[in-house]
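Exam review. A common question shows you a sequence with its structure tokens and asks you to describe the fold in words. Practice with the pair below. Do the first one on your own.
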Amino acid sequence: MADFRVDQAAGLRRLLGTAGLQVITFVAGCEGVGRSVTIANLGVALARLGREVLIIDEHSSSDDISASFGMAATHDLLNVVQRESSLAQVLLRPMAGLSILPAAKAARKLGRMSLPQQQTLVDAMSGLERSIDVILVDASMAHPNGFSPFGLVSQETVVVLSGSGASITEAYSLIKKVSQAFSRRHFRILVNKVRSVTDARSIYENIAQVATQRGIATLDYAGAIPLDESLRLAAQLCRPVLFQAPESPAASAFRDLAADLQYWQQSPGEQGGVEYFLQQLLHLSQRITPKVLRV
């Protein structure tokens, strides 16, 4: 096992390329808050800043990132693990600097992969042509362990919510449950579909105050995406708003978020580097037991 871990670390180091890799998981307490559309547009904005971005998508084809680009995923990372497809066949590349890795099936089996399957996964990922600067994870709400292992080991977990009361309540409930079940103590809040920055700040401050007072977690403000008709129309056309309406308020907000994201600082306990990320992802996922996060 020790030798395997060394081999894994070497493979991931080839994949990630630099020590400056950012791994950011996006979650939501309920559907309908625009999480996947947000990730797709953020990926475009980061790629246009010269970053090499990999989006890992844990959702099925009916609700996935590829649909935001008018594309269809025909393979899954699990096909690579089972030696049925090459990684090149699975990856989608909607634009220069941005790749999408459909992984709905693989994510659900991550904790049950055999040692040879883990090695196959690492070998395949280490063969990527380009070094990755940023990994964005579109985490599923229905992971068998109750929460995505990526969300447990990533440097940042961003909770996406909207201005509705139900969305705010569900977001807080998710934060509380993940904090209690998995000891995740830091989250960022991204407020989507709001009419003003003032409203977004107020929503964030209220939820952050409650979380702090009750000792649940520390929350930081990630930003806000405005309620913008251009964003809705772009989604209907299966195009990122940065393609469809680059001068819109929503597009501007995504560019601002991408610029800020590059300077987010890691928490003191999350600076273990490449080996830490590798070992936590592939081994923690097999050690954790399923948690029921629903009331």
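Now try the second one, then compare your answer with the model answer below.
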Amino acid sequence: MSALVWLMVGCGLAPPLPGADSGVRFPHAEGYDAAALHGAEALTVGTAACDACHRDDTTAPTCASCHEGYPHPVGWLAGATHGVGLTGDSGAAARAPCAECHGVDGSRSPTCTSCHSSYPHVDGWDGTGQHGAWVRARGSATAACGSCHGAALEGSVTAPACTACHAAWPHPDGYADPRLHGVADLTTCATCHGADLSGGSAGVACAQCHAGFPHAADWGVAHMPAVELQGQSSCLVCHDDGAAPTLPAACGARCHGGTP
């Protein structure tokens, strides 16, 4: 039996083989089973030409013969569908099937970044100087990261919540009130606002609102002339808890053993 007859039997006789004008090279070149070859060609000319032979009712292999998740089902574009399992300790294994077509770094078309402008994340992304600065440059963390990390950044089946690392972030409504943020652990704040709370990757320093804070090492001595120079109002932003609404009373209650 001639090679042409075998070819016709293998392809099920119908529909006809793709013509030269289809853009598909047939017989396929050596090494054509590599995704970088047949995948790139399929993306360029479309899969209709491939369907002439690669159907369930023929002896030719289908895409699903090698690619468990392809063709992708309806709704695949939803992050909660295709993003499941891609992060965390087991993420590398989960991404391996995707890498066959999309590349280990997600750079083959269609790329991950065609929808997720910062994904795959670069090395060191968990450092605030990376993702924190990136988010601030775009103005909205929910808009930039919400597609994977949840609309309110509360985490999802695809990615962790911001609060997994930042206990007080995203900040709740009214967090600018010192009665809320003033009781926070400063070491937690330093993660984004800098070790000396001078801004850090968040770009917001305590001193922008509190001229004398963080207090200097010698503040126990220096605070008295500072108050005389600046007045009490700047201190009362933090040192007025309602129970001691004037600075002398607050000082006495907090540090000096009682009301002076």
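Model answer, second protein: The CA atoms of residues 70 and 105 lie 19 Å apart. The two ends are 110 Å apart (CA to CA). Full marks require stating both points clearly.
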